[in-house]
Design a protein that fits this description.
296 residues; alpha/beta; Rossmann fold; 9 helices
Length: 296
């Protein structure tokens, strides 16, 4: 009986040792695969909503991208109507962190939003030591992002590597009755031929010479003549106007012919996700792209 107890005791010790060894192995493996990314190597992507936009504007896109392991949301930056910047969240070891930028006054002018982006960039550089970022803007968020790139400021800021705009009206909005049913300083800037849009083209010499730019436009009426192509609000030619601002060789454009490619629906399309992933991060992983294709 004592021999049986002795054997059983050592069997339990042996099994326990194996279990502890395996546990240590997996903990070590996890630690080694999660080595912190140097802060200087982080390139956050900032998502900037458009006129009347808010928390939901880019959230579903970031969720889809996170599910495909293209990045992860780490931070939300709130800008009050008075221009106060507050940050929720922090950066960890994710090499492609997402940052959502939210303006309390989502009907503000391009000038105000440009100034607010300067303050956002200052905080990222001084408080979080971020040295480079990407910008993604929907509609007026694209105008504000381009305006920021051409603005003059002595404030410390990360370098912008890439800019992607989605349905941004660089030649204004021509939809009949639109400005009769909307309000705010932004509606002045969004008028075709507005002073803000004119100044943007006049200041094109200030556009940084090294930034890659992608413009995405939706076309819901592909059977119509090209000059009438639009997303239900913004004509594709208005999006293409950005080409007149960006230095030669830095501009790329994608048109999406789909009856779901409406102005508000464009950033909900998986096809747009893929275009951004390839443009921003050179995403070519076959497993991820196969997963993406399942969403189409």
């Amino acid at each position: 009986m004592n021999r049986q107890l002795f054997t059983k005791k050592w069997s339990l010790i042996f099994i326990g040792s194996i279990f502890i060894g395996l546990l240590i192995f997996f903990i070590s493996a996890k630690s080694s695969s999660s080595e912190p990314v140097e802060r200087s190597e982080l390139t956050p992507t900032l998502f900037v909503h458009g006129y009347k936009g808010g928390p939901r504007s880019f959230q579903s896109m970031m969720d889809r991208m996170e599910n495909l392991q293209w990045g992860k949301k780490h931070m939300t930056i709130y800008v009050s109507a008075s221009g106060m910047v507050s940050i929720q969240g922090n950066f960890s070891n994710t090499p492609r962190p997402f940052v959502q930028v939210l303006f309390e006054n989502n009907r503000a002018s391009i000038q105000d939003q440009t100034y607010w982006l300067q303050q956002v960039m200052k905080k990222l550089r001084t408080e979080h030591k971020i040295q480079q970022v990407n910008l993604v803007g929907h509609s007026m968020g694209g105008l504000a992002s381009a305006g920021y790139l051409m603005s003059e400021s002595d404030l410390p800021a990360p370098k912008v590597e890439k800019l992607a705009v989605i349905a941004s009206p660089f030649n204004g909005i021509k939809k009949e009755g639109y400005f009769a049913s909307n309000y705010g300083e932004a509606t002045t800037d969004l008028q075709p031929g507005s002073e803000a849009l004119r100044q943007m083209e006049e200041n094109k010499e200030n556009f940084p010479p090294e930034i890659e730019v992608l413009a995405i436009a939706g076309v819901i009426n592909g059977t119509e003549p090209e000059e009438d192509h639009w997303d239900g609000l913004v004509h594709s030619s208005s999006v293409s106007r950005l080409e007149k601002i960006v230095p030669f060789g830095q501009y790329k454009e994608e048109l999406i012919f789909n009856n779901l490619a409406t102005h508000s629906g464009l950033h909900e399309l998986a096809e747009v996700d893929r275009m951004l992933a390839v443009f921003l991060w050179d995403e070519t992983d076959e497993d991820n792209l196969n997963s993406f294709d399942e969403h189409l």
